[in-house]
Amino acid sequence: MPTAAKLVAALCLAALGYVASDLIRPLLPASTDFGLFNHVNGLIGLVMGWRVVGRRAGRGMSAAIGNGFTGTAALVFWGLFVQSTYEMVRRSFARHYDSIVEAIAAIFELMLEYGEIMLDARVILALLLGGIASGILAEIAAGRWR
User: pTM, whole model, 2 decimals?
Assistant: First the structure.
């Protein structure tokens, strides 16, 4: 059921996914073709905000901070998974892998590789602060618009 808390959480995490994507771009090689990178991560943030943070809103401010962290962790995990899967499919069409097992294993290797790239202080700080803000704003929305 749609609620104001779900909407606020979805919009906040969508913005966080988009902004974090902008912070990640300079960390990758200049020749990288980003395509819909920001938009895909924003969409993942939208879904994680609605399903993870918004669903748990209304349990108090301390829980809101935890909800924000949980939503941000889900955003990072699914963002890494989707981007790694896309890269694996792109490489598969270039006949980079010999078997399907090797291709599936490459998803997790790419997730680790991309995760290492994200270990930048600005990205981590933005994700932590954005997650806290998302959880608190969703909590405020849950309390104000029941």
Answer: 0.91
